[in-house]
Recover the amino acids of this structure.
């Protein structure tokens, strides 16, 4: 596809004008960031893996009736997506205490939660994406009470799907982040899943060993991030298992 006008560049993706009205080309970068971009690196192949994995998850979620912005994968690094107005909130679902929840509440990392917890964070890097309440969200008109009900329902449905999918390949879904956008059709709007779902936006632990298979590897210098993402993709069948002597990823188109 010919390169089009760039609309936005973020930490892990670049958005370009799409070939038709109402579409965007989403490009997955190899950049890795942590701690609000205080730590940075380029991980060769990460963007390719995240593109493939996000496609896999979005197609699966669409198959169970969850609307998403995903249209199709264009190549190894790009997807064609629907243009949406992204609500300025990160929606986090937690199944196990970890990360900021453990630090904030003094709960030992790895403690199972009696039920999934849905949290909202205001998307603002200059404020370090602060945790916000539903009352604050409504008061500042980031979303309506009806939007919030729909967002929670969607997040929990994504959690059910992703937890089962990961459990089937020996991976525990500890927590994950999604973003949700408004898709407009005249005066009518609906909420749909946007951004991406990948190991960049999930905490994934091996069920048997507890080994991390997500971006915490990069955050805490625990090993090779690309190898961990490749293992997730291999377990899910997104890319085949390596045969002896081969090097580098061989991705399923």
């Amino acid at each position: 596809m010919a390169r089009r006008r760039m609309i936005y560049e973020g930490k892990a993706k670049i958005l370009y004008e799409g070939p038709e009205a109402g579409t965007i080309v989403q490009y997955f970068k190899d950049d890795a960031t942590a701690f609000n971009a205080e730590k940075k690196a380029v991980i060769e192949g990460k963007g390719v893996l995240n593109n493939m994995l996000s496609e896999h998850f979005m197609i699966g979620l669409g198959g169970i009736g969850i609307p998403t912005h995903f249209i199709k994968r264009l190549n190894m690094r790009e997807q064609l997506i629907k243009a949406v107005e992204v609500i300025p909130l990160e929606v986090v679902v937690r199944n196990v205490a970890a990360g900021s929840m453990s630090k904030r509440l003094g709960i030992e990392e790895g403690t199972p939660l009696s039920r999934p917890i849905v949290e909202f964070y205001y998307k603002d890097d200059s404020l370090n994406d602060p945790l916000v309440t539903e009352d604050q969200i409504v008061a500042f008109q980031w979303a309506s009470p009806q939007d919030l009900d729909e967002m929670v329902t969607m997040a929990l449905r994504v959690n059910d799907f992703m937890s089962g999918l990961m459990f089937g390949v020996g991976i525990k879904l500890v927590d994950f982040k999604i973003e949700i956008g408004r898709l407009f059709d005249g005066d009518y709007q609906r909420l749909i899943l946007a951004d991406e779902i990948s190991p960049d936006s999930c905490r994934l632990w091996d069920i048997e060993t507890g080994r991390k298979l997500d971006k915490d590897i990069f955050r805490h210098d625990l090993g090779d991030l690309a190898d961990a993402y490749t293992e997730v993709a291999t377990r899910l069948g997104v890319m085949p298992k390596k045969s002896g002597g081969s090097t580098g990823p061989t991705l399923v188109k």
